[in-house]
Structures are given as C-alpha cells and as structure tokens.
Amino acid sequence: MILVALLFFSLLVLGVPVGYVLGLAGIAGMVQIGGEQFFAMAPKRFFAGLDLFPFLAMPFFILAGEIMNRSGITHKLVGFADALVGYMRGGMAHSNMVASVFFAGITGAATADAAAFGNTLVPAMVKNGYTRPFACAVTAAGSIIGPTIPPSTLMVVYGSLMGVSIAGLFAAGILPGILICLLCMALIAGFGRRWNLPKGEGRPSLISIFKAFRESILALVMPVLILGFILGGVTTPTEAASIAVAYALFLGGVVYRSLTFRDLYEMLARTALITGVIFLIIASASILGWWMTFEQIPQAIAAGFLSVTENPNAIIGMILLLLLGIGLFMDINAALIILAPVLAPLTVTIGMDPVHAGVMIVLALNISLMTPPVGACLFVLSSVTGERIEEISKALWPFLVVEVGVLMAIAFWPDLTLFVPRLLGL
Amino acid sequence: MVATEHSFARIAGRAAAWSVGLSKAVEVIVVGLTVLLVLDVWLGVIVRYFIDLPLTFTEEAARYLMIWMALLAVSIGISRREHIGVLILFDRMGRVGRHVLLAIFDLLGLFLFGFLLFYGVEFAISGLHRLTMIYGLPKFLPFAAVPVSCALACIQLILSGIRDQAKLHVEAGQGNLSV
Fold first, then answer.
1. Which of A169, A108, A105, A148 has its CA nearest to residue A406?
2. Is the separation of the CB atoms in A145 and A180 below 8 Å?
C-alpha cells in the first residue's frame, strides 16, 4: 500500500498528467495484491467508471455555456447588472459581482466567467480608473460563484460519483453563491470608501432598469428554466441540461443570429475535448478506486482521521484544511474525483448530510480556483488581461478571506446549505 | 551538423503534420458523435414528455455515445498536450528539463494506454457474447471504445513525443536552448 502511495505522489509531483497517474497507481495496486489475475479488471473499471447516465449532464452544461457565451450574452447580463448596482461607489466592481451571479446560472464553470469578464469588464474597469490587479481580483472572486450556483459541472461529477441527488446539490448551492456575492459586495463597498473608487453616473431610472432587464430577459430565463425543471422534479438534470442546449441554440441561432456553423463545430469539438480530459481522470480513478475498495483504503483513512479526534467539528476542520491545501496544487476536477470517494464515507461517519458534505467539498475546491500557484481562474485572467499572477494574488487576498469565511459558515452551519433543498422537499 | 538539424526538423514537421491530421480526423468523428448524442437525448425528452412512442433505447444509446465521444477525445487532448497535471516542477525546469519530463510523461502514458489496449481487446471480445440491456446489441460495440481509444492514444503519444523531442534538437542546434 505504501509503495502505491509513494508511486502516486511521486508521479503527481513530477507533473505526469493526473489521468495517467491514477491509472498507473491503480495498475501498481493490482500488481501489489496479486498481479496478473487482476489485470483484466483494469479495462472493465475504465469503462464502468464512465457508464453512468447522470454524467451526461456535464457535456450538455458545458455545451450550453459555450453557446451562450459565444452568443454575446455576456454584454446583456453585464448591462442589466450595471443598471441595478452600477450607480454605487465602486459600481463597476459591484456590477461584476452581480453579473457573475447571472452568468453562474448559464455556465457553471468558473473559468468561462473569468475569461468572459476578463476580456470585457476588466478593460472597462481599468478605463474607468480601477487598478488592473483590483479589477482582476474582483473578477476572480466573482468567478467562483459560477460552479457554486447551479448548474455546476462539479456538482454533477460529485453527485454522479457518490450517488448524491444532483437536484439537492444544485438547490443547496444557491444560498452559498448569493452569500459570496453579497459579502464580496460589502467588501467592495468598504474599499470604495477607503480608496475612493469611481462612482457610477447616478441612480438609474426604473425605465432604464426595465429596459436593461428586457434586453437580458431571454438569457436570465435559462437558469430559471433549468432549475425549475430539475428542482420541480419535472426532468432529470441530464434532460434539463439538454433543454438548456436547445434553448441556448435557439437564442444564439434564431434570436441573436450570432452563431455560425463554424462556431457550432468549434464549440462541439471543444465540449468533447473538455469532456475527454475530465473523463480520462474519472475512468482512470475508477481503476485506482477498485484497488482502494479492495484494500479498504477509505475506511483506513476515515479511521486515521477518527484516531486523531472524534469531534465532528474538528474532523470537518481537518477536511477543509486538506481540501484547501490540495486545491493549492491540483486541478479541482482531479482533486474532486480523487478525494470525494475517500472523504464522503468519513463525512457520513461523523453524521453529515450527504448534500451538505457535497456542497462543502465542492465550495472548498472552488475557492482553490483562485489560489496560487495553480488556480485556474488566475491563469485565465492573467492570460487574457496580461496582468501578473503575483499582482492579482496580492489584490485578491481580502476576497479570499471572505470566501473562506463563507466556506466555514457553510461547513459548520448545515441549515445554511440545507434550507433551500428542505424548502423544496428534496 | 546542419544536415542533422535539417533531418530533425523534417522529422518534427512530419510527426506534427501526422499528429494534426489524425487529431482533425478524430475531431470530425467526435463532433459527429456529440451531435448524435444531443439529438438522442432530445429524442428521449420528446418521447418522454410530448409524444408517447415506445422508444426505450435513448438512455442506453446516450451513455454509449458519451463514452465513445469522450474516450476518442482523449487522443486529441494528448496531441494538444491538454491533459491536466500538477506543473509546479515542470514550470521551473529549463527547456531541456521540460523535454526530459515530457519524454517521461509520454513513456508512462504509452505504458498505461498500451496496458489498457492489451487487456482492452480481451475485454471488448468478451462483449461479443453479452447483449446490452435494452437494445439487445452485442456489448462489443460499447466495450470496443476502450481498445480503440487506447490505440489512438498510443499513436498520438508516439507522434507528439517524436514531434516535441525532434523540435528540441532543432532548437538546440539553432542555439535557442535555455537550460
């Protein structure tokens, strides 16, 4: 067991793609428990790891997000957010946050948010007198709302892997996402007074708010449709995701007329590529997961945690530290696929609700999207704006503190997460 | 020396062209499968909620189309070096160090996909005598996604490996090598 763990961590540190590391460690585990008689198990697990219907929601949500993003919907959402909060001191930073919430309802991927706003809002904020690191920091902080508020591809992966209700996870992500937005806006308001951030052009009239609302209504309807179908028990998440694709195609192709066949081909190819990259990790993790189950590793890890302390709050704290620590160095999809099967049984042992545990794990990993050295949103923002990661990180830390605070609140106050699912009877 | 550089440049160019060609061909198939997948799930939604037709295969077909689509796309990811790794050490290496690491990654990838290809053929053949639950097709059809995608992954690993290692020699010969 120790040799397999050593191999796993050595290959990981060396930089070997995570999909390879998981498969190789799984094969090494098979060698360790008896060799050739188990080898035939590898392709079976590789296939079976993907043979789950709920996984289908992931490529569909990715495709719907790609189409909406390419349709020029970002400008309309930003326009509406600006009409709502743009008049305040630090108005563009507030708009960025509110637009992230709207955008979260259609993409579910933080990097899509970071790329879209990094290209549009960050230059506009800089032009209006904000420093570029601050504009990037606000965008990064808002981008993690994407995979927290439904639809969220991470929640689809977690729910599918661990057999937890995806509808329940989606419902449970709503309040934490809104809370992150509100607290970050409070922080921006504080900065606004202290740093004298630029102010908008005065409070907008109800007519101009309505006009901006009317222009973005078709985009704003999409998350309502998706969530309404899923949370109302009308469709499965996969079916809702396919409806989202149809709706996005209708908007991009018929209403806005901004999509070409070339665009469509590129978006389909990109969706397949992203799915392939994530599915290789899932399939290979299934090989390693088989060996881990055979060797009862999750139980051993749970026992290890419990031998340190049996206090549930202390164990939750240790889980959060582990997730935030791993998230510093590893892609969040990979971290989720590796750690969820290990940590989920532990959370059950200490009596956590599976939906509560799922949202906590997903949010902890989401936060690591904006922590150096491998925070994906930092990379995206740095590449689209040209700002150095170190400068963005310096401006980002107050937001990071706020978001870790939200994570703590979610972890130690289950009602905050479970209120909406209970309200909806999920 | 110049002749050696020239031949390395030719090898790198040819490997890159083959890698791109294969990647493009697989991409067309993958896009086609994704379109089929979308249409299949839409059909499932239509027959479930709007038109009462006895079509029960959509869910099964969707799972298998998704697996084929995603596994074939793995080889495209290899060709474009898109697969996710922890790159802290890699990013701190000089160009030679990076190429050594890339060679190690490719060899390890070749071992993994070669292993899965070898045992995957047996796995796919075992599906010839087993039928899918709803449609009653031989499970060979979905199972074959494993050896086929692993074979493509192996080919892409070889082509990408040759492309990148040969490129290193050319760059070294031109004096651009930052170690």
1. A148
2. yes
Contacts 24+ apart (CB under 8 A), B45-50: B45/A235, B45/A239, B45/A242, B45/A243, B48/A239, B49/A235
Question: B59 — contact with chain A (CB < 8 Å)?
Answer: yes
Q: Write the pLDDT tens digit of every residue in A166-178.
A: 999 999 999 999 9
Query: Under a CB-based contact definition with an 8 Å cutoff, are residues A167 and A231 in contact?
Result: yes
Closest CB to B35 among A15, A268, A329: A268
Helix (H, G, I), strand (E, B) or coil at B138: strand
Q: Judge: B69–A51 Cβ closer than 8 Å, yes or no.
A: no
Are the Cβ atoms of B77 and A330 closer than 8 angstroms?
no
CB contact under 8 A, A269 and B27: yes
Q: Do A272 and B30 touch (CB under 8 A)?
A: yes
What whole-number distance in Å separates Cα of residue B90 and Cα of residue A315? Answer: 34
Question: If you ran DSSP here, which 8-state letter would residue A424 be given?
Answer: T
- What B108-112 contacts at long range (C-beta under 8 Å, 24+ apart), as own/partner pairs, is B108/A11, B108/A16, B108/A20, B108/A24, B109/A17, B109/A20, B109/B78, B109/B153, B109/B157, B110/B154, B110/B157, B110/B158, B111/A24, B112/A20, B112/A23, B112/A24, B112/A27, B112/A284
Phi, psi of A42 (to 5 degrees): -60, -55
- Does pLDDT of A111 surpass 80? no
Cβ-Cβ contacts under 8 Å between A and B: the total is 180
pLDDT in tens, B66-101: 999 999 999 999 999 888 777 778 888 888 888 899
Q: Are A61 and A241 within 8 A, CB to CB?
A: yes
* C-alpha distance from residue A26 to each of A147, A346, A370, B75, B103 (Å): 29, 22, 30, 21, 22
Nearest to B104 among A14, A40, A42 (CB): A14
pLDDT tens digits, A70-110: 887 777 888 899 899 989 999 999 999 999 998 888 777 78
* Tokens 């309200």, residue located: A423
Report helix, strand or coil for A89.
Answer: strand
Residue A283's SS3 state is helix
- Tell me the shortest Cα–Cα distance from B2 to chain A, in angstroms: 34
Three-class secondary structure of residue B94 per DSSP: coil
CA-based max dimension of chain A: 74
